[in-house]
Structure formats: C-alpha cells, structure tokens
Amino acid sequence: MTPAIDDRAPPARPRIVIIGCGFGGLEAARALRTAAVDVTLVDRTNHHLFQPLLYQVATAGLSAPAIAAPIRHLFRRQPNLTTLLGEVTHIDPAARTVHLQGAAAPLPYDHLIVAAGATHSYFGRDDWAEHAPGLKTLDDAFEIRRRILLAFEAAEKEPDAQRRAAWLNFVVVGGGPTGVEMAGTLAEIARHTLPGEFRHIDPASARIILLEGGPRVLQAMPEALSERAREQLARLGVDVRLDARVTAIDAAGLTVQAAGDTYTIPSRCVVWAAGVAASPLGRQLAQATGATTDRAGRVVVQPDLTLPGHPEISVIGDLAAAHSHAPARQPVPVPGVSPGAKQMGRAAAANILRRLAGQPGQPFRYADYGNLATIGRNSAVVDLTSPLGPVRFSGYFAWLFWLFAHVYFLIGFRNRLVVLLDWAWAYWSFARYARVVTGIGNAGRDK
Length: 447
Prior knowledge:
CATH architecture of the largest domain: 3-Layer(bba) Sandwich
Distance between the termini: 71 Å
CATH class of the largest domain: Alpha Beta
Helix content: 25-40%
Number of domains: 2
Radius of gyration: 24 Å
Structural class: alpha/beta
C-alpha cells in the first residue's frame, strides 16, 4: 500500500509588527532575532537616529550620517525581519491590522509593539512652530542649523544696528537637557568657531538667551547639579532666565512674562525645547482599544506594558505612560529617556515570547542608571545611580564621561569612529565643518 502523503502547509509562524525604529523599536526587534516568529518593522524614515546627539547636527558639529544608520543595513543579517518604509495611519485592534498610507493592503499581526515616539508640544499654540522649530528629527536639525548660520549671514549684511541685533539674538526656550546643550553649543559657536570669519560683525557679540519656565534648569537632576549647570552656562556667556514664561512668538521675536513683568525679546532665531507630546497615533490607538491617555497623549499601559483587554498590543518608549514595578516598592513613573525605551523594548519582546510559550507576561522593571547633560566645552553634569548610592560630579571629568558614554552607545563602529575623530578635531581646532546649507533663496532645507 502506498503511504499517504501529508500535503498540509506547515503552521504559520506568529506575526509580530513593530511600529517605529527608535530606541525602543530597535531593541525589541533585536530581542526577537533568534525567535521562530516573523517580524515586520515599520518606520516613516529609512534610518535609526541617535537622538541624544541630534543637537550636534543642528549646530554643525556633526554630519547627519554620523548619528544615523540605515534600518535595512542594521537588520540585513536578521532573516526573520522585514523592513517597511511607511506612515501608519491607524491601527484596527478588532481586525488586528495596521494600515499604512498608500499601501494596497493592511498589515496583519498576531502581536503588535507600538513605539511611535513623541513630537513637539507647543501647549496649544501650534502657530509658534513656524517661528520656533523643535528638535526631534534630522529635518528639524537641518532647519535649525540653516536658521542659525543664515542669521549670522543676515547680520553681516544688515546696516541698521537695531535690526542687526535681532539677528544676533539667539533664544532657546526650555531648560531641559536639549535646551541646555543647545544653548551652550550656540555660545561656543559664537565665541570660538565664527570669530575672524566676518568683516562687519563680531560673532562673539551674539546674545544667547535660555528661557526656562521653572525655578531651575535640568529639573530632573538634583538641585546642586542644576545650579552647577546654570553657573557653567553663565561662564560660557549664556543669559539664563528662570521662571520666565513665553506668552507669544512671532517672526519678530518673543514675549516673555517673568516676576510680574512682561517684556519682548527681538530675535530672528528661536529654538523650541520646552515641550514634548506623544505621537498622535497614541490617541487613535487609545480610542480604538478603550485605553486611556495622560495629558501628554501617552497611552497608559498595564504593568507588563500591554493595553487593558489587549494582551497582544504593547506600547513602549515615549508613547507609553509606564511605571516601574520593582518588588516590595511602590510603582514609579518611567522617565522619557533612551535607557527607558531600550529596556521597555526588550521587556515587551520577552513578554511576547513568554505568551507564545503559554506563560504569563512579567511586570516591567526599570533600571535607572542616572542622567547626563553636557553644557559645553569641558563642562557637563553627571548624576549616576550605583549600588553604593548616588554618584554626582560636574566639570571636566563629567564632560569626558558624557563624551565616552555617548560614543559607546552609538550604533555601529563607523559612527563611533567618525564622531570621536570629529570631536577630537573640533576640540583642538574649534572648527565646525558641517556648515553647508542649501535653499538659501527659497527657504529650502539642506541635507
């Protein structure tokens, strides 16, 4: 008798879709590299971006490829992963599909990890965005760099002293890490990089103003380190103004309210570093699943990073209002920093594999390693968490620690080498060579 031939197709492997290739999405995808699953990674850009150094591109210290890596190249040796370039328009939890703009068919999933990140928040005044760009993407960095460099060029051509002063007033709104790093670097550009290159203006006469609505800069850090940061900024020539609330921004400058007084700052170059809001995808997902969002639009997740009633959907990174659940301790909010996103990415992937194995997911536990912020040349503040207690220091050695930590966490050996060489050259020469801008006549953007 001829044996029967089993022509049934092999069982389909679980389909996992990851939205976003920031720190969280990248780590989730890497954590699934050896699993018997099919992963689809969707991002609206073709690159992973090392955001902590984005301000260096905006201030002409680094070129874009030094802090970005093509997503397809990163996963070229992960055969269970497919990369798609596309914009997610909405998620259908009932049908378990992800819809992409312009795609012929939606993406089906068995498990979904949403790591769509965050965008700028202007606290209800989106009209300010035209005059005060934020810093979240490479396009943002190109635009800010363009405005900074062209402000000096416009001042060189301006014969009127009052209008020239407006071009040389650079205002940074927000005293968090991005604002502090941006203000300190702008001061270095004006004081050390550009002098000698102009004939009708002195770039060192530029005013760098940092506006912070709270009582101190770097409010996530201990008060003593915040004060050290303020002092280091002042030594660089940055005018730090605390308890200063911006009430209006237009093409001519800003209106500021402080200590019961209201005044204006004429400025043609304003950088926004004051507010962050979750991706709009978060609100759409919350409405579709019945989940809740916080005031910043972040999706409130369960201890294992999933949504109530939807164990197949995990939300991580800046899009998640997540808590750390350490044993015998009260849950504490997870800060919106890259280590938190990385750890959430790994935890979400691990929980998916546990569920596929018939095991329950585990609560997320965040390991806080501390905070770093650079102020400028030879100046930084470091707040580390260790088993022996907090380790806090500032100044030159903090700057070295910040430098090598950021080089270490960059993606790829080439990027680490390029950044280290660029920084070494800039340290000894004060030069910044990533200063090419295009579209000068039509306000276009450079690459």
